[in-house]
Amino acid sequence: MINPCIKNLFKTTAVIFLTAVAFAFSACSNEQNATQAKPKILVSSYVPYTIVKNLVKDKADVTMLMPPGVEPHSFEPLPKDILEVKKAKTFFYVDKTLEPWAYDIKKEAAFELGKNLSTPQDIHIWMDFDKALLMTERASQNIQKENPALAQKVQANLSDFHRQINALKTTYSEQLANCQYRDIYHIGHLAFGAIAKNYNLNFRPLVNSSQSQEPSPKDILEMIKQIKEKNIKYIFTEEALPPDMADLIVQQTGAQILMLYTIEHVTKEEFDEQISYQDFMYKNLENLVKGLECK
Question: Does 178-291 match 40-173 at the fold level?
């Protein structure tokens, strides 16, 4: 018969051993979870969101501060938004001209993708493909610096983005080279000046500054007059504009409406579908080719 003392000693040793094994497995599991935790990146609006998503794909958690459907020109962050920006390790925004609130919250600690790229005439810098590339390169440098483990993947995605943008530039040049019309009559604000300049088009917006600016009756009548005189068949609007103005001009001219996407903000459905910068720009090209009657 086994001595009770020895029996108790075996029990005690077994308990200690099992406890040690459980602790070791727990430590390994925690270490593995920590290793697998995705970096968190906060962005202001959809332009930096789609840029960053092109770079990190599913290797990082990217959160957009501005809810889908909100007008970025007039966005005012709530206290919880300000706190989230201040806590974020990585925060990207377009620039202090388009998003002064973002600059005011975090100043030098935030990353301004479009720094020194905008002009007083046009702050929609991402509509220029070369500037969109530069913004993406800046984001890539920052992400690789902050997250060395992602560097190789981010660099490969950046190279892929370069190829896609170069293909876009070529397609735009080819398809907008021969068009019956070269005037873009746009019931919106000055958001597509870069496209017009780069592809020899004339951009004629109803208002020149922000979306919130109201066009004067004189401006509306002048646009109606030109559309009638030049027998324009298509006019353009943008995603966030109420349809009233476009409907009025359509009633007066008989022209049809086509959409041009600013990519400044998206609907919840578009956000859920994760429509990329490239996809939106191809949509714009498709409608420009149709509206300008390009061969």
Answer: yes
Angle at 63 between CA 142 and CA 78, to 5 degrees: 110
Q: Is the dihedral of CA 179, 182, 183, 184 positive or negative?
A: positive
| Domain chopping of the chain, boundaries | 40-173, 178-291
| Class of 178-291 in CATH | alpha beta
Supply the DSSP symbol for 127. G
Say how far apart CA 259 and CA 186 lie, in whole Å: 9
Bridge partners of residue 236, in order along the sequence: 186, 258
How do residues 80-89 score in pLDDT, each as one tens digit?
A: 998 898 888 8
Find tokens 């984001």 and name the residue.
139
Residue 237 is which amino acid?
T
220 CB-near residues (< 8 Å, 6+ apart): 206, 245, 248, 249
The yes-or-no verdict on residue 206 having pLDDT over 80 is yes
Measured distance CA(229)–CA(246) in Å, rounded = 18
Please, which pLDDT band fits residue 4 given cuts at 50, 70 and 90? Answer: low
Q: What homologous superfamily does CATH list for 40-173? A: Nitrogenase molybdenum iron protein domain (3.40.50.1980)
Banded model confidence at residue 32, pLDDT cuts 50, 70, 90 = very low
Instruction: State the Cα angle at 64 between 41 and 115, rounded to 5°.
Output: 75
**Integer Cα distance of 116 and 112 in angstroms:** 9
d(CA 157, CA 167): 15
Element (DSSP H or E) covering residue 62 = strand 61-64
| Residue 260 · residue 238 · CB < 8 Å | yes
Residue 63 pairs in a beta bridge with 42
pTM for this prediction: 0.84
DSSP tally for the chain: helices H, then strands E: 11, 8
DSSP state of 38: P
